[in-house]
Design goal:
alpha+beta; four-stranded antiparallel β-sheet
């Protein structure tokens, strides 16, 4: 019985792990570099915080929201690449079709973050806490390579993603996908996040 339970658990982990999809080279290296340069010049840079505006002890680093005219060109490019990945993702998992048919589906403004050696983003989920319940798909983009630490860890799926420049990662934001950004040990880690969201009062029918 114990052996059968282990096999069943392994199958469940494999199925959930399939929903974490990596798009290597999803964002060109030169665009990644331009985003980092713009981040370093942006005077709105601030301590990383939650959607509710809370600076948590388990979350280190600095962030910039890609708002304003100075970000317009890069933001448009990033959003288009993100939408391209979404269409491929939806083709793999047809359950998204009834959401994507609605014109009100939105993409949040990308947030760029800089995480230094020893800083991390502790265990969390992306949808459910205050201000995040509308999210139905997370998008994480690595803007730099990190070779020592800095992995994105999904313990229930037994996955640990090593940051590689330009890789875009799409995954569900729900309670089945707790994860953390482990601290880089020597290098600075730059990453970008955004979310596909349902409307405020949407009710989806199959």
């Amino acid at each position: 019985m114990a052996k059968r339970n282990r096999k069943t658990q392994a199958r469940r982990e494999a199925v959930l792990g399939d929903y974490i999809v990596l798009y290597h080279g999803g964002l060109p290296a030169d665009i990644c570099g331009r985003i980092i340069d713009a981040f370093e010049r942006d005077p709105s840079r601030q301590a990383s915080k939650t959607a509710a505006g809370i600076v948590e002890s388990a979350r280190g680093g600095e962030m910039v929201v890609m708002k304003g005219p100075g970000w317009a060109e890069l933001r448009e490019f990033v959003n288009q690449k993100t939408i391209d990945c979404l269409h491929d993702y939806a083709a793999r998992f047809s359950g998204l079709e009834f959401i994507l048919k609605r014109e009100e589906t939105t993409l949040s403004t990308p947030v760029v973050e800089k995480v230094g050696p020893g800083q991390e983003f502790g265990w969390h989920i992306d949808s459910g806490p205050m201000g995040t319940y509308r999210r139905f798909l997370s998008v994480l983009t690595y803007l730099t390579d990190v070779n020592d630490g800095g992995r994105t860890e999904f313990p229930l799926q037994k996955k640990a993603l090593q940051p590689r420049q330009g890789t875009m990662v799409l995954f569900p934001p729900y309670w089945m996908f707790p994860h953390r950004g482990a601290p880089p040990l020597r290098e600075v880690k730059y990453k970008m996040t955004s979310y596909f969201m349902v409307p405020e009062r949407a009710q989806f029918g199959l």
